[in-house]
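Trying the structure run again after the queue cleared.
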Amino acid sequence: MRAEKSLYDHDKYWAECYGTAPFLPMSRHEMDELGWDSCDVIIVTGDAYVDHPSFGMAIIGRLLEAQGFRVGVIAQPDWRSKDAFEKLGKPNLFFGVAAGNMDSMINRYTADKKMRNDDAYTPGGVGGSRPDRCSMVYAQRCKEAFGDVPIVMGGIEASLRRIAHFDYWDGKVRRSILIDSHADMLVYGNAERAIVDIAHRMSRGESITSIKDVRGTAFLRDDTPEGWWEIDSTRIDRPGKIDAIVNPYVNTQDASCVDKAESELAAAPQNVLRFVPDARKNRSRSVIRLPSFEKVKSDSVLYAHASRVLHLETNPGNARALVQAHGRRDLWLNPPAIPLTTPEMDYIFGLQYQRVPHPVYGDAKIPAYEMIRFSVNIMRGCFGGCTFCSITEHEGRIIQNRSEESILEEIGKIRDTVPGFTGVISDLGGPTANMYRLACKSREIEAACRLPSCVFPGICKNLNTDHSALTGLYRKARELPGVKKVLIASGLRYDLAVKDPEYVKELVTHHVGGYLKIAPEHTENGPLDKMMKPGIGAYDRFKELFDKFSKEAGKEQYLIPYFIAAHPGTTDIDMVNLAMWLKRNDFRADQVQAFYPSPMATATAMYHSKKNPLRKVTYKSEEVDTVKTPAQRRLHKALLRYHDPDNWPLIRQALKTLKLEHLIGSGPTRLVPRDQPRDAEHRSPRRKNSKAAHEKRTGRGSTLTQHSGLPPRSEH
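Done. Tokens:
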């Protein structure tokens, strides 16, 4: 792979003389006011344009602008014709196409495949402003508008659909979105390094078709080039009789494990690796061939195998290139991009964002912006590895941190420039609130590790769990002049938090606004193991600390746990046990969502194949319980809302079928009463099912409230 420069080490493009635009232009009139005759890059996005670092189009646009390029934005265009894609004219370098901050199908449909009426990323929150699989549609319209202009596709939708993937809405395996969209290149993960390199090289005259050495990119080629060693993925992790070869999930918690892995590879039979005389020395020139699209489409076990291998090759320190045939052409995926350094993160978040929506939207509210306008993103990535979550596939497992100075400076900008600021910072967080500056104690071990999670089945002994940097940041943030309170609204990894009681005390005493969201997801080991989540005992330990420190602070505060219904590995008995746990703890679900199979997630591979890619996949390996029928999905959701009389008939029938009739009746040890209430006033209130953007993204489900007169939802 090409050696990667720092983001600020590139020579700027000549158009830097135009300076910084107040907003990236969305019309020819704005371009004229800036003195531009054309755009170098045009970003097409499925979200409204909000000039804020929580929105992908703003980050990429402002970053390219800082490199000297003229960048325009076409936001939520009418996709029914090419006209809207021509309004800024022909870009000199390329179109950058993205669905926005969410996969468009998850944005448009519920887990029950019903179309949503709302869209948090649209002015007024109105649904219907983007098509299904909008990255694909936008790319096709760009080709119609200007057929000779290259298209670079990126964003989370491209990341999750970069190879052959199971599509929940079609109920089948679809080709890579790169194939169906006719784009020229796909950039996956956080794309800053790749997009800056691509833009500069194209500005110097390189053709998009000649750029094959940028990490974090996918493209098509006709054959494996000379000098590359091709490895058949089924010889690494064969779906049948297993050859003696390195265990792909070898525990690399210490150097001896790494040495053992290398020695196993050296001792493997030569026919295991095609054309590889010494795989250890040629890793950077090795490519793993996954089963073809045609094979994984027709064989769900091979699909699970391909998913497993792909997730094994996600550590930038040791990942190899992947290739997957689609018909007569090969889809080639270079290894993931090298994570950004802290100075690079500071550089990105310090760009000239206006921190408000583009003026074209007038007074219209954009719900996603309203949610985050007083929040600060302090880091990227998550090493939890939850199988249902898309963060791992997009941002990766290595935490990328901003400096304390950069974060405090952004809080000052919010205080001084964002309209409506009342002194409350709504969140200092990221994908996981308390992973800031947590990392492996050894860079060498981190670079060699192939474990899918640093915290499952237990916390790795090489993981630094010291939260003192975060505790110090909290203290400095709330001491800033004009800042009355700093809340933490991002999801908390409580099994990590209990390792540092001082952090929990700081959090509970000063940064909880009455309620704190956490995500046990389930109580039973069957589904928890398939999710790669800790047992409910970790929740109990955290709750003890939470209650203790709340009492010491003289505050009445509550935990708001999230649970998922119908996740792979969940049986009807598991859901009954969860419902009984909820009743014993006097929790009542306000909103419930079943498992949502997002493209490329490990849990989605389980859902599709009924196999467990967390272990070696064979035709005879472990079968995973999957909940697919509408009736069973309704039952699992009903059990989370055991207190709703509308659900009692369904639950009673299920308890009888499961031979658990002793749970029917009155009293604390029974789940539902024998009779339906006749009077409506005895019925539990039906509440509107609001859908927060982070729940859509991660597939998380129910919000619970303790039945003690509390409002039904967290004020966050």
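Residues 241-281, 685-716 have pLDDT under 50 and may be disordered. Worth checking whether this holds up in the mutant runs.
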